[in-house]
Specification:
Helix content is 49%, strand content 0%. With 148 residues, it is an all-alpha fold. The chain has a single domain, classed as Orthogonal Bundle (Cytochrome Bc1 Complex, Chain D, domain 2).
Length: 148
């Protein structure tokens, strides 16, 4: 009898055990997410200001990926309003993308541009956009547990 079914089953079981951020570098998987910070409307407002000043040129004022510069890019910027994007996003993943950039896309690293609090402000805003701008009405998933 072939071992292929057993190997496939084991592979599926192990992948189900991995967290949503399991493909991030270890330092980002262990990053503590400031959940209360992300829920704050004040924080999201600061994140919106940072977004308009630093991100809207590519991602658009509405965060829909249709900024003035988006047409000239080899790959269209992320549309943060699209439910499919939110389904793949997590606070750690957005933080990582802001700090490190996104390989294979025009998204640069903003590591030196924002301090840690400002980065979390942007994370809060971007995640709230994906939720229809009503982040205070939805429950953010518990994300403080590091994923190994």
């Amino acid at each position: 009898m072939s071992r292929l079914p057993a190997v496939l089953l084991l592979s599926l079981a192990l992948s189900a055990c991995r967290g949503e951020d399991s493909d991030l570098p270890p330092a980002y998987r262990r990053l503590e997410v400031p959940e209360e910070h992300l829920r704050s409307s004040e924080v999201r407002a600061r994140g919106r200001q940072l977004f308009v000043r630093n991100c809207a040129l590519c991602h658009g004022e509405r965060a829909d990926g249709r900024g003035a510069r988006s047409e000239g890019l080899a790959r269209r910027p992320a549309d943060f309003t699209h439910p499919a994007w939110r389904g793949r996003a997590s606070p750690r993943r957005v933080f990582y993308a802001l700090r490190e950039g996104v390989r294979g896309t025009p998204m640069p690293s903003f590591r030196g541009a924002f301090d840690e609090d400002e980065t979390w402000d942007l994370v809060a805003y971007v995640l709230s956009v994906a939720a229809g701008g009503h982040a205070e009405a939805r429950e953010l998933p518990k994300t403080n547990e590091p994923t190994e």
